[in-house]
Write a structure and sequence with these properties.
- The complex is a heterodimer of chains A (about 450) and B (about 425).
- Chain A has about 450 residues and is α/β, with parallel strands linked by helices.
- Chain A is built from 17 helices and 21 strands.
- The longest helix of chain B is centred in the C-terminal third of the chain and has 16 residues.
- In chain B, α3 links the parallel β7 and β8.
- Chain B contains twelve helices and 24 strands.
- In chain B, the strands form eight sheets. Chain B has an eight-stranded parallel β-barrel with strand order 3-4-7-8-9-10-17-18, surrounded by seven helices. Chain B has a four-stranded antiparallel β-sheet with strand order 5-6-16-11, with no helix packed on it.
- Helix content of chain B is about 30%, strand content about 20%.
- With about 425 residues, chain B is an alpha/beta fold.
- The chains are: A alpha/beta (about 450), B alpha/beta (about 425).
- At the A-B interface, α2 and α8 of A face α11 of B.
């Protein structure tokens, strides 16, 4: 190993092999059977359970936990998958502390919720590892549906449509299916090939064909899809990245956090990945946290998240923020970048302090500089490449509750659609609900 | 500290906690460990007749049921009486008693139901210096098939007969241990009293099958694919035992007969409850088998704290305190009206009270959109189910309506004491005076 945490500039191989293995191993391994039984015993089997209400996919949590406690995790998995076919990934990436576990009555009672996320993983893993697909297709309807985007929303819609007997073709721009599950989440949350395996497992339902390397405007046109298929689901996500709009953005080693995360996910040998000695991540969401934490885990000496508003406005959950600070990331609030300074490549970022007042965010005249040989932008993604003619709302495709767009025969779900939080679990719910609405429309 | 010294039918012990005749009291090694831990006395595991000892199975002897977090709630066993030679037991009993003079040491006995057998065993135990004997008329498995244990305890005439022999051939205090596997516990207790017993102890274990192996299709504990009924004990049997103790304590025919309370005693509180219902002391087995002998230390500290708080100087002041309040249903006050009250600050909004009441009781709890649960007094019959299913202690309580206060359910004002014997709906009612 020639490089270390102190090697200046951007470099790979800053750590020993053991460190990479530990840093990018499973952050919350599956519960052992004994642990699962103990955790399941804590569930009160609440009436009309608050956890279930808090779950965007409305999984019957008390029922699946009771099924675990009675020694039938496979039945528990069926309960989960019937509401959320990507329950395996959601068990790993859901911000449960803001959803089901926040609502858990034992959080109220003792400040310690039932470990719903980890129990969900225990159940889903048991069935998925056995290679069992729990659903069978209904009799074929002869209807065809096109799904654009093979991320959580698209896969969820495709599965439900196939299950109902429709034939589905899923198009995706990338080389692999999975969307953000494959390219967008921190490696330690779903190590190995979990996302890819999950897609293969999901496809066992039959009736789904995936075509990679195709996107709207690049091999696909909405008009022809409408003609060739009985319905179209747009689940294209948010492919655009917001610009910094600050001087020096074009310097070397200023990159999009989502690209950094995607490259990291796809590289099995983390020692080959480049990371700066001093990394500055700009943003306040999950993407910022994931990029910052993984920079630290790759061996960066100093990693700073810089967010322009106060802590309470950060969209990354408190748990995520604590995780970041726990691995040594520093989080600065109320600072906004005014320019990136460098000579060919970034060397420093200059920040101004901000004040979040009634008339909006104001920059103070006081500035400071942080060393930065790598700058990551994580200030939000936007809809891009959407077809003409669709009504938009807040920069997203406007939809009704069940995903209908302004164009008849076209539904939208997931991050690209209006409404709902940009969470994997929300995308799954929207995809599923759009599929149900399409089924009702086609068969009605 | 309260004085826990106990004198039970003349037998003194430093506290009222004895180990019951069972696996923990089978030999000197265990009994000395128990005394070192603080147990007030032991009833030595049942001795049989001189001759080849009984044999035990070589597979599982115990079956169990568990509550949340695998807390052991009930234990069942198919172990027989001691399988060690009589002489070995007698020698060890003598050694232990000489070393531990201040502790109670009782010998449990079970021999065939004939006068010679009893005369013989009583003679053989004479010079052990043990404090008394306990007649095992309770064991429901194995020995009962041979005409002993509960086979005797289920026939009051046999109980009386054997007890009489024991009193005739021995000067030792005699405790008769009763089986709960009968319909009316008062009959065997009366028989023991008629035979001259100094006390009864109860309950012995309850006939049971704890579970079924759903792969082997065999009862558990399973021995080579077969299973048999065994004796059930532990916290799960306590309510059954308490009732039987109370029935003997309050019955005209047996009132005043000393009782050694047995059945699921796990904490000081359980012991205090048995004593309040008339037990002069308690015997423990499952708690020790679950947690080891050290549990007695919590029983000692807890009971003394309680007695201090109640200003009780001796255990005699506790014994029987609740007996006058055990009555028949027909004498319960039908004009005593309570209503459930939910403490909204303590409520964690699990909704179990609502599910229980709405699905299985009187639809007397209202659930709002924000999960606030409130009692509908006009529907509440005060059944207590909501309290029983609530996971938070004291979150739901019962408010007693004052006399003259309107009961919104019946539309009537709360009256003075009146019971079923004078109720107009009772065809056998006597006219109210």
């Amino acid at each position: 190993m020639s490089n270390s945490q102190f090697t200046p500039g951007v470099a790979s191989g800053r750590l020993a092999a053991d460190d990479y293995a530990r840093n990018f191993g499973d952050i919350a391994p599956r519960l052992e059977p004994h642990e699962a039984r103990v955790a399941a015993d804590r569930c009160y089997f609440c009436h009309d359970a608050p956890c279930m209400t808090a779950c965007p996919t409305s999984i019957d949590i008390p029922l699946f936990i009771r099924q675990i406690s009675t020694g039938t995790p496979e039945a528990a998995a069926r309960t989960i998958f019937s509401q959320n076919i990507l329950g395996g990934m959601c068990a790993r990436v859901c911000p449960t502390e803001q959803l089901c576990e926040e609502a858990c009555v034992r959080e109220t009672a003792e400040g310690k919720p039932v470990e719903i996320g980890r129990l969900q993983r225990y159940a889903t893993d048991s069935l998925m590892e056995a290679g069992v697909h729990p659903f069978a297709r209904a009799e074929q309807t002869g209807k065809k549906v096109a799904v654009v985007g093979a991320g959580p929303a698209g896969l969820s819609a495709a599965h439900r449509l196939a299950m109902k007997g429709h034939d589905v073709v899923v198009y995706d721009a990338r080389a692999k299916a999975g969307g953000l599950n494959e390219y967008g989440i921190a490696s330690y949350k779903a190590p190995g090939s979990f996302a890819a395996n999950e897609v293969q497992w999901l496809l066992k339902i039959g009736g789904i064909r995936i075509e990679n390397g195709k996107s709207l405007g690049d091999g696909l046109a909405l008009d022809s899809l409408k003609q060739d298929f009985d319905a179209v689901v747009l689940a294209v996500g948010l492919a655009g990245v917001n610009a910094l709009r600050a001087e020096g953005e074009g310097l070397g080693n200023v990159l999009n956090a989502v690209d950094f995360i995607a490259e990291l996910r796809q590289q099995p040998d983390k020692a080959k990945l480049n990371v700066g000695r001093d990394v500055v991540v700009i943003g306040g969401g999950m993407t910022a946290v994931d990029a910052a934490v993984q920079s630290k885990l790759l061996g960066a000496e100093n990693v700073t998240i810089a967010y322009r508003r106060g802590r309470e406005k950060m969209s990354a959950s408190t748990d995520e923020q604590d995780h970041a600070t726990g691995v040594g990331v520093r989080i600065l609030h109320n600072v906004a970048p005014v320019r990136v300074v460098g000579n060919g490549a970034a060397q420093e970022v200059e920040f101004a302090y901000t004040e979040d007042g009634p008339s909006g965010l104001k920059l103070s005249s006081e500035t400071f500089r942080l060393k930065a040989d790598q700058v990551m932008k994580a200030i939000g993604q936007t809809l891009s490449g959407q077809p003409e003619g669709l009504k938009l709302e807040g920069g997203k495709i406007a939809v009704t509750g069940t995903g209908r767009t302004s164009v008849p025969g076209v539904w939208a779900a997931g991050d690209c659609a209006s409404g709902g939080e940009d969470l994997t679990v929300t995308a799954v719910a929207e995809g599923r609900d759009a599929a149900e609405d399409i089924h009702a429309s086609l068969m009605g | 500290m309260a004085n826990l010294t106990s004198t039970f039918i003349g037998i003194k012990s430093p506290n009222p906690f004895w180990l019951a005749s069972a696996p923990p009291t089978d030999k000197k090694y265990n009994v000395e460990r128990a005394f070192e831990a603080g147990w007030g006395g032991v009833v030595w595991k049942t001795l049989g007749s001189e001759g080849p000892p009984v044999v035990n199975v070589n597979g599982a002897r115990y079956g169990a049921i568990w509550g949340a977090d695998r807390r052991l709630l009930g234990l069942n066993n198919i172990e027989l009486i001691t399988d060690r030679p009589l002489q070995v037991n007698l020698q060890e009993i003598k050694e232990v008693k000489r070393k531990w003079r201040d502790r109670a040491l009782i010998i449990s006995l079970m021999v065939p139901c004939d006068e010679d057998s009893w005369k013989d065993i009583l003679h053989r135990i004479e010079d052990t210096e043990a404090d008394g004997v306990e007649l095992n008329f309770g064991c429901p498995h194995g020995m009962a098939e041979r005409g002993m244990g509960s086979a005797v305890g289920q026939v009051p005439e046999y109980i009386e007969m054997v007890t009489r022999w024991v009193k005739q051939y021995s000067r030792m205090p005699c405790i008769v241990k009763l089986t709960p596997n009968i319909t009316d516990i008062r009959r065997p207790a009366e028989a023991a009293k008629r035979g001259g017993a100094d006390a009864v102890s109860l309950i012995n274990t309850i006939n049971s099958i704890t579970s079924v192996d759903l792969d082997l299709f065999a009862p558990e504990p399973t021995i080579d694919g077969k299973g048999t009924h065994g004796g059930y004990c532990g916290p799960a049997v306590k309510p059954i035992a308490l009732n039987m103790v109370a029935e003997i304590a309050r019955s005209e025919a047996t009132r005043g007969l000393p009782i050694s309370g047995i059945g699921g005693v796990t904490t000081w509180r359980d012991a205090a409850e048995f004593m309040a219902l008339g037990a002069g002391n308690v015997q423990v087995c499952t708690a020790a088998m679950t947690y080891g002998f050290k549990v007695v230390q919590e029983m000692i500290s807890g009971l003394s704290q309680y007695m201090d708080e109640k200003g009780m100087a001796s255990t005699a002041e506790l014994v029987g305190r609740a007996v006058p309040n055990v009555t028949d249903w027909q004498y319960l006050n039908l004009n005593y009206v309570t209503k459930a009250v939910i403490d909204q600050d303590a409520c964690i909004k699990c909704g179990r009270c609502y599910a229980a009441c709405e699905d299985t009781s009187h639809q007397a709890i209202d659930m709002s959109a924000d999960r606030t649960f409130t009692v509908k007094e006009e529907e509440c019959v005060a059944c207590n189910l909501c309290i029983d299913v609530c996971p938070v202690e004291s979150c739901i309580t019962m408010r007693t309506l004052d006399q003259g206060e309107l009961d919104k359910r019946t539309g009537r004002k709360v009256g003075t004491y009146a019971n079923w014997t004078t109720h107009p709906n009772n065809p056998a009612a006597k006219a109210a005076e």
